[in-house]
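User: I'll paste a sequence; please echo it back and then give the predicted structure.

Assistant: Echoing your sequence first, then the prediction.
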Amino acid sequence: DGPQPVSLAPVASAMSELMNEVVTFVAESTGPKVEKVVETMGMGTVVLLENVRLNDPELDEKNDEEFARKLASVADIFVMDDFADAHLNLASTVGVTKYCEINVAGLLVESEHKHLEEAVNKPERPFAAVVGGAKLSEKFEMINRLLDKVDGIFIGGGIANTFLKARGMQIADSLAEDEYLNHARRLELKARNKGIKLIFPDDFLFADTYSVKALTSILPYSELGEKGRVPAGWMVLDHGDLSVLNIVTQFKSARTFFWNGPIGAEELDNFAYGSHAVAALASAIGAMNRTSIVGGRDTVAALDRANMRKDTTHVSTGGASFYDMMEGKILPGISSLDPPDEVKVDIPQLTGDAPLFDVDAMD
């Protein structure tokens, strides 16, 4: 069901401290109390309304028109900065745009669009990608699209197992999707026809159990074709030095680098080696003033556990919205905004009690 919505009251307190200003919190999203507080606001003051998903989740999820109108009734300008929900057709992200005079992207959404759309479609080359994770079914569309953009792509983690099985290799009890074997073959064929490097691990860390106390053995790719070489019941949970060396050697000169999906069971320390090496590469590329992009909840968690976020160029905040954008889908929360060249707002430099906006210019 996902995390439950929580009150924004603590956020108001944190904002007050950061801004060194009083931030008024209203424990409602719409209604007479909200309208009264907004009507009495002084120029330059800040009011934070309650979490929409806490007050009226059903009306928000249904993009209820009356609810959207009420949300927008106290505003002239809507700033969309909720990239994590940009894939959803909500009253609070899409419906309000019908009733606000001006609808623009916030700095976060602008940054996500810049890196996930512009950087991918018009990358500095060489453009390299690492895609891992558990299931090919969840990444097929993204890999298929990336093959139209990248110069090289490394496939690791559980996804690689499906490709290996499609090649007739022995992977014992490793996770693989039999219904996606032909999908894997199609991706390999596409890469070959387009002359794109589709790179697979050179070695595999097999374990007898998913545990920090597991027995492990690293086998080179060449031995996976031998029947009985992999003990029954064992599974691939990470990669070794040969794979890491190959990734670094192939991709260290990349000017645009994209990573989605751990290439091992990174949440356990004994299976984190490969993923943390990729995290270090993303950070190193960013530190050289090139572009490194990391996205996906588990991938970002791996980046943080490796302590490599600092120099990474862009770390996406999106879940489903990240995948939808990478698959080339239209995000309602972004497509509903005004075209940038049509937005006209005069915002003077703030000095003293100068107004935030030239209200007359908005009439």
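Confidence is low (pLDDT under 50) at residues 348-363. The longest strand covers residues 127-131.
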